[in-house]
Amino acid sequence: MQTVKRNSFSLKLTVILLVFIFTMGTAVLSSQAMAIGNYQDTTFNKTSDGSGGDYVTPPREKWDYTSSWAKNNSASSVRLANVMSVASYGGSQFYLGHSIDIVTLDKGQGKYLQQLIKEHGFTYACIVMTPPRYTTFSVDWSPDSV
């Protein structure tokens, strides 16, 4: 009788451990799948000409539904006016706003930028920046984040 109880307990413990291992393995794999995006930073360097106009990064492909990321490497603050989706028509590119956040990044500050590029059916994104006049500015950015 003791042997049956021990075997029953061992079986229950084994089942519980297997369920736990399966659950943890699934959680790890799904979190890795969520982080497979275009998250490598590209640096955008520019000197503003004093016109007070905006500067747009080259379009980059958006691979997932995560926020974009940007970090200001400049000596002064830079306003990120929008995260834009990029559509093409007849060889021209059109920029459509799908940003939730419009932020100003101080020197050295980085931030996740919420946007709805993929949700609206687009696959390319860029950011629009408004730097102070007559300054050289540098911003790292990626369309996806980890």
Could you characterize what this model shows?
With 146 residues, the protein is an alpha+beta fold. It has a domain at 42-142: Jelly Rolls, CATH 2.60.120. It contains 1 helix and 10 strands, in the order αββββββββββ. It has one helix at residues 2-34; strands at 42-47, 55-56, 60-61, 68-72, 78-89, 92-97, 103-105, 110-113, 124-130, 136-142. Strands 2, 3, 5, 6, 7 and 9 form a 6-stranded antiparallel sheet that branches. The protein has a 4-stranded antiparallel sheet with strand order 1-10-4-8, with no helix packed on it. A hairpin with a 2-residue loop joins β5 and β6 (92-97). The termini are far apart.
Number of strands: 10
CATH architecture of the domain at 42-142: Sandwich
Helix amount, in percent? 10-25%
Rough outline: elongated
- The value of Rg in angstroms is 24 Å
Q: By helix and strand content, what is the structural category? A: alpha+beta
- Count, helices: 1
- What is the average per-residue confidence, as pLDDT, rounded to a whole number? 78
Give the CATH level 1 class of the domain at 42-142: Mainly Beta
CATH structural fold name of the domain at 42-142 = Jelly Rolls
Note the beta-strand portion. 35-45%
- Main β-sheet description: 6 strands, antiparallel
Termini separation comes to 54 Å
User: Low-confidence stretches at least 5 residues in length (pLDDT < 50)?
Assistant: 27-33
* Order of secondary-structure elements: HEEEEEEEEEE
